[in-house]
Queue: 3 jobs
Job 1
Amino acid sequence: MFPDRESRRAEQYARAPLNELLALLLRQWKRPLAGVGITITDADAAALAQAMVRGTDDARLPALREALTSLVRESHDVLSTYGLTFADSLNTNIGDLSGWETTADFLALAEIKSNAELRISTGSALLVALGDRAFAPALTALVERGVLDLDSAVAKRVLEYPWHRGTPSQTD
């Protein structure tokens, strides 16, 4: 049996250079970050990711950390309106949630839930890479659910990397 496309990509992510994975995540965050006044080009994403992996300073990192923290917390708040933590959400079938009656309602709820999960998983990976271990439990939840997908592959890589920084309160 051939592995599915996502499993093959997850295996590639498990072997890819971490700075490239982080740059990819940062590029995915361009629009949400622009919404809070942070503009990131592809070159910026690569440079910021390299700084994270090497543990070097970059004047843009504190603002990036602050914006990501706010956006990830906002996504946690979205899930909490449905009575879910991030870990609960990962293990909850969209059909098991209340609050929808029509197909359109169901699709809207599915989009809200999946967007919140994606922002939490990718944002937490970036925040741990920025030295904030307070977001590591979200990554642990991804890995512990035992599903080989892109989010869990990135989470595992970030959790296993020997980060040079502590939490902001330890370094600022």
Note: Residues 165-172 have pLDDT under 50 and may be disordered.
Job 2
Amino acid sequence: MRQLELLSPAKNLECGMAAIDHGADAVYIGASRFGARAAVGNSIDDIRRLCDYARPFGVKIYVTVNTILYDDELEATRQLIQELAQAGVNAILVQDMALLSEVEAENGERSANALQFHASTQTDNRTAEKVRWLRDLGFSRVVLARELSADEIAGIHRQVPDIELEVFVHGALCVSFSGLCYASQYCFGRSANRGECAQFCRMKFSLTDVDGVVVEHDRYLLSLKDMNQSDNLERLIGAGATSFKIEGRLKDVGYVKNVTAAYSERLNAFIRRHPGEYCRSSLGRCTYTFKPNLHKTFNRGYTSYFLNGRQCDIASFDTPKAMGEFVGTVKEIRGDSFNVAGVASFANGDGLCFVNVSRQLEGFRANRIVGNRIYPYRMPVSLKPGTRLYRNSDQEFESLLSRPSAERKIPVSLSLSATADGFCLKASFGTQQVATIVSADHQQAQKPPHENIRRQLSRLGDTIYVCEAVHVPDDFSYFIPNSLLTKMRRDVVEALDKLPRGAVKTTNRRSVKPMMSQSVSDASHYDYPYFYNIANRLSQQFYGATETTAFELKGGEGPLMQCRHCIRYALGYCVKHGGQRPKWHEPLFLELDDGRRFRLEFDCQHCQMNVYKGDKVK
């Protein structure tokens, strides 16, 4: 039976525990340092507490150690990994190849208690060749590039079937292939490869041609919508993916609860349609106090990205901010209020927004709701009848999520039988089974005891278990005191708690040569160009490089970004895909308000757009 894993984010202990409560099979979280989100770090004690909370459900905990490392950080990183292993972490996500040798034990086998290595999406994983190479290095899992289509994922799985493939299914999208974005470092001295991305792609640009003609003025030309593959899980499963990753280590606990619950329900529905073929990789059944709704959680509008190949509507040129759910169109404006044509209901304090005639996102709060009329705190001047209205903050929904909103229990079946000199109580879930036997006199009951026995044994109370059924033979006619039933119930719960929750998998490292990059050919005249992200002596030794070459250390003349998103295609001017012929003279430039500009290269052979440094406009 093939196991499926829902992998949820956690910026802190609270979010991690909420992810588990709401249906995650695994949680990824950052440690105090060396994670690709430097703003959210967690202590070893908190990570240990999360591991302890996860273990009874068989939920895995993965820690992101997926930044490039400098020489003076290697020893601290080695110590961190040892501490994570001792805390009970199942795997770490890795970008820097220095870690492969930094945590090797003297006998040549991995130390750190069989801690698994997952190749982060920061290692730029988009071909079967790259995935096979990572497998041979000893990685047990590869996190694929977000840009891959279902067909491309299936092709990788066919060629390298013996490694786990993890895919992103929800959340924010980076416009550059992960691990190959240097724009933030170049512009602001904040490296995306060091967890300090300044979100260059969410900035406003003008698009100009070589003659200075403005093609687009002040638009968010690199800002993408958010990914939503909730309707495409079956296709991804069919392509060979086993882990489905929700982005969001900067998101709050409400986001984690809602999105985790929504995807957990989708996975469960898929499994019910394929009985005996698939199962979840962890234990437990969740119940919720709310109905999950992905449209009510932070989003910039949704896209399936490149899952079905290239499509136009993947970017959000008008705003990089949350739009939320569409709630209707403005119908009538009267003084300081208006009503909305639609079926949505509203509450005081709801956050509403719309795109005005200047193509800017404008937001406001609902101060008072009377029937179907909305009275804003301040009436937006540019709000007009017919305007499409969105809600990016739903007060009633957020109030539900602010309280305890889920309970996770492991369903168990109990079976009671008589032994020669007492009684035996068995408990089982899945293929696991435990039993407790007590010695007691066989006393005949005055009346059938089945109802009381079932009632007493099924009281699993505040344990993590819920009783699905109590099996008592029809001819069972013995009286058992409630005190003895209680003892048997407690003993069997204690035995259940001691059962192992999933086997530890190990992966052996093979002897392989460093592979040449799959990146653009413009920089291939370097032995090991900067997009290998070689920033320390161990990584340098791994590749056999003559020096460290990381952009963060030495800069470089190649692209600052490599993107599958193509502005020319998005604007309808890709001749290769049936668009009209461009009306400009290339090269094109992205230009910031301060005059800095960046040259665009359209690599049509690889269907890729590259962003380079450009001269500042004088």
Note: Residues 406-497 form one domain.
Job 3
Amino acid sequence: MGYYENPPIINFTEGYNKVTEGIISASRSISEALIRRGERERLTIEKLQQQKNEVDLAYNSKLSEWDAKTPIGNDELNSKIHGLLQQKIQLAADSRIALLSETDNAKRAEYLKHIRNADVFMSNASTFAKNIAMDTATWRENAAAITVGAQNGWVVNGKDAKEIEARTGAVEILGGLNQLYDDHSIDIEDTGDSFKLKIKGKRKGSEEGFELPIDARSYISSDEGGAGGFLQKVENLDEFTKMSKKNLVDDKGNLKENFLSQNIETAKINNQYQIVYGQRLDTEGIRKEIQKQASIKASGYLRADKEASLRSLLNYTLKQGPEFYDTTFKVLETVEQKQAMLTELLTNQSFNSITSDLHRTKEGDNTVYWGPSSQIDLIEPTKPNKNDKNPAGPTSSSNAGTTIDPQNYDLALKAYDNAAGGSGDKFDVILTGPKGGSILKTFEVLEDKDGKNRIFYNNVSYTREDFRKFLNSYRRPALTAK
């Protein structure tokens, strides 16, 4: 009988049984551990997915809120900014999830930058859009009105005609006024946490187009810091004029006697009219009083050091022309020079405002201002002498005028149109003042800063619409056209 037919009986020792049981127990533990590890990995994946969903929903909510609260008048720009913002939000959401398991410092810094860029970009885009929306809405409401360039009105902020034209185009295109342009485009460049625009356009009827780069971050900081956005408010100096009159008038608002000559005079205006009951103004004394307030005002402007405000004040409020600030004032080397120039301009503005309703005559190159009590009267014609072939009095010469019914504005405007068209170099307007009495104002045809002839009164240019409003501002005005 062989070995396999009659195998020997093997008795396992107690130690052997313990080893076997240990192996089986270890195998069972490993199996259970693997199961638990798989469960943990499954739970971790589920948790990460849940967190990713929450982050995506949070950023999507931010984007929806941004869309709802951020006004942009141009659909093309809105679409391009929205597209960039959506990309950044998606990248920020993924970066937040990646941060949970990333240990490499460089990678973590990169992820944090993506998150920061999305948040800052959203803030910059929102602020830019709101500021642009305010500018464009203001311009749409005021562009066709005479408030452009007038006190309390608005102007496009720019250092010269070319920049003003380009910024005007940008405001109109960004405001959705695309119909004013034959061709236009808006390009956008991603700069990380902000963006840059390049706006091109050609206005209908214009021979040349414009191109304007806009850095959103710079625009926001300049607008908030006083360097100026696209629009600038034209300051009203009524309060300054009121302050400068403080020491010139009494409690009833009448000019103090010490600024008037004590002599009562009659002064010839022309061959037909004369000043009667005239008291000359002490113009030098009045200007000195105004200058005290003007110097304080000028110092305040310069201390504030807001370029856009100064540009608007000089170019428009003080009517020095759209390039005066950048070509004349800004280039002055010292603060003292700037203060002297600004003081002089403020003094002139206030003086002209205070004396605007007063009669005036010429004595050589000098202007004589007459007090409020003065009146305009006709010069009594000399009775003709039968032996005198040329009697005194009104003649058919260019100095003689004919009074026109002021209510017939067509005739009044015709006198303006004749002068504007080159028929004569001036014409006189006789008005009934607010408190009665006659006021004479002489409108002259002079060459403006741009070389074109325009009609001026008291160094202020009058358009046809300005002249019509001028007539309407007086009670029962009467026009004498020469």
Note: The first strand starts at residue 154 and ends at 156.
